[in-house]
């Protein structure tokens, strides 16, 4: 029995190496040494009598047998996560933990006040939030709920449309006074436009406009900071700047131009018997957004 337990552990270690194709990255993720990880994979290959990985000084690749093991372990992990969710959710009680993953901007603007007000009403529920832009696979990661800005929600999950937002062009009054207010999309090319990294094409009136920014950065909040400091024009989600526009700190540029719109979805795995606390939080979130954001 102990031998089977150890083999199961080695299979899970292998699955992490196979997903990342890096012993170093997998060891860091797992919180173990690279040497221990390498030794466990070697022992697993000896037990199975088949090579699972092709190793070189620069890369790690999967053999056909390795690909088969990875696929099976993905299915096993998904089943274990579903089992854990079903057991963890004591269905009649409004207590316990809800694990949420959501984008940073949405968390700051909407999710944090939602959680504060929810906890005032239901103090026995704890809320754990992964705040990032990484899109977690809920079949492989143990989150109860995900909030995502997308127009293509995953088909293997329950997806409930929560909120629609658009992007908006804006700049500070000081910048516009100094450089003038653009009156057409083409005139944007003559301005200092600031963009997010890898988002240097702006879709305006459903047509692409290629921007050559002096500064690009992978954080919309920092783009807003640059705009508030009079460095140029930005194109960001409206909910990031609407309060600044209302206070006169920023001014909408080309307000009649059609920009991209995105839907925010509330996404969760299909549970046959959903817990009371998760159902309550979902309804609370939908009502809060309807009252404050729509």
Automatic annotation (TrEMBL):
Key words, A-Z: DNA-binding, Transcription, Transcription regulation
Domain HTH lysR-type, first and last residues per copy: 14-63
Pfam families membership: HTH_1, LysR_substrate
PANTHER family in UniProt: HTH-TYPE TRANSCRIPTIONAL ACTIVATOR TTDR-RELATED, HTH-TYPE TRANSCRIPTIONAL REGULATOR
Lineage: Bacteria, Pseudomonadati, Pseudomonadota, Gammaproteobacteria, Alteromonadales
InterPro entries: LysR-type_TF_proteobact-type, LysR_HTH_N, LysR_subst-bd, WH-like_DNA-bd_sf, WH_DNA-bd_sf
Family listed: Belongs to the LysR transcriptional regulatory family.
Origin: domain of life: Bacteria
Protein name (Swiss-Prot/TrEMBL): LysR family transcriptional regulator
